[in-house]
Specification:
CATH class: Alpha Beta
Strand order of the largest sheet: 1-2-3-4-5-6-8-7
Strand content: 25-35%
Oligomer: single chain
Number of domains: 1
CATH architecture: 3-Layer(aba) Sandwich
Radius of gyration: 16 Å
Largest sheet: 8 strands, mixed
Low-confidence stretches: none
Length: 186
C-alpha cells in the first residue's frame, strides 16, 4: 500500500519505498554487518523494483524507507500481513543504519502508524534470541514474548513478541520524551 503522507518525527521520517529505492534497499539487505538476523535475499535491482511495486499494490502491507531530516536514507521497515478485521499485523523487514536515537525514532514512527493511524490493536514481531538490541527495543515498546520457534536456515531460536496498543500507549510519552531530549543534541 502507499502512504498518503510521510510519517514525520523530530529527526527522521518514513515514506513509502518506491521502485527508485530498489538499489538502496537491495544493497542495504546485502550488508553483512546489518543483516546477521534478517533473511537473506538474492536477485537483481529489477527483481527488487518488482518486489517494491508488488508491496505498493498490496492491500495488506506497507514497506517504508526511513530518512533523516535532509532526506538521507537510513534504512527500511515494514508492517505486513495486516488483518484489518482482527486489527492485527506483523512488523519486520527492519534494517536500520542510523544512530541509536534515529533508529529508536524510526521504530516509534512505525508503531505510531500501526496503532494510531491504522488502528491495529496487536502486532507481532519475531526476533532472534541473540539479537539483544532488537529485543531491548521491542520490550521498551511493551513487547511480550509469547513463544519461540527454531529457524533451521539460521540455526537459531526466534522469539515471538506481541505488542498491544495498550502497552504501546503506556510507554509512548516516555519514549517520545527520550527521543526529543536526545535528538536535540544531534
Amino acid at each position: 500500500m502507499i502512504l498518503k503522507n510521510d510519517i514525520k518525527g523530530n529527526k527522521t521520517s518514513l515514506r513509502t519505498a518506491l521502485p527508485d529505492d530498489a538499489e538502496y534497499t537491495l544493497l542495504l539487505r546485502k550488508k553483512p554487518e546489518l543483516n546477521k538476523y534478517v533473511h537473506k535475499i538474492d536477485g537483481t535491482i529489477d527483481d527488487q523494483k518488482n518486489w517494491i511495486k508488488a508491496q505498493m499494490e498490496s492491500d495488506d502491507s506497507y514497506f517504508f524507507v526511513a530518512t533523516d531530516e535532509l532526506g538521507n536514507l537510513l534504512g527500511t521497515t515494514s508492517v505486513y500481513d495486516i488483518n484489518a478485521e482482527e486489527k492485527f499485523g506483523f512488523t519486520g523487514r527492519t534494517v536500520l543504519e542510523g544512530n541509536q536515537i534515529q533508529n529508536l525514532e524510526i521504530i516509534y514512527l512505525l508503531y505510531y502508524f500501526v496503532f494510531e493511524e491504522l488502528g491495529l490493536e496487536t502486532i507481532r514481531t519475531d526476533v532472534f534470541e541473540e539479537n539483544l538490541s532488537a529485543i531491548g527495543v521491542t520490550e521498551r515498546f511493551g513487547g511480550v514474548c509469547t513463544g519461540n520457534q527454531f529457524i533451521d536456515s539460521f540455526g537459531l531460536n526466534e522469539l515471538i513478541f506481541t505488542i498491544s496498543k495498550e502497552n504501546y500507549l503506556k510507554r509512548k510519552d516516555k519514549i517520545v520524551s527520550l527521543i526529543s531530549r536526545f535528538s536535540s543534541r544531534l
